[in-house]
Design brief:
Elements: H1 2-28, H2 34-41, E1 48-49, H3 50-57, H4 61-73, E2 77-81, E3 89-93, H5 95-107, H6 110-115, H7 120-134
Antiparallel strand pairs: 1-3, 2-3
Amino acid sequence: MAELRETLDQQLWDFVAAYDAAYARAAQTVGLSAAQACLLDHLTDGSCAMGELAAELLCDASNVTQLAARLQARGLVDRVPDPADRRIKRVSITPAGRDVQRAVRRAFAFPADRLGLLTEREQRQLSELLAKTMAPDAPAPPAHR
């Protein structure tokens, strides 16, 4: 059983690494870093405060400031003071940013390519297993060594 867990652990790490690398390559097709593309993805539902973006992206607020500044310089996002609290800056995606975001999503073929290797039955089974492992009541994973 320990050997199976080690194999699964390694397979999951390999999958995540391949997924991240494919996402970075997709972002590069439009001249973005993976972090910049990820920030654009977090703006699809409207504007977001810089601090909220930092929390969602699990990074320091200064990183979000740098990412947003680079995206703003390319006309992909706007940064404006929050109307309720002018100390807070809100970031929103521009129409050009939406075009770039869609281009990244089109270039990010990794999930579809990998799922295409599975039969419909296998895809259903994988979906059920992933749902089970990611359920809100699933025990928290142990810290990685």
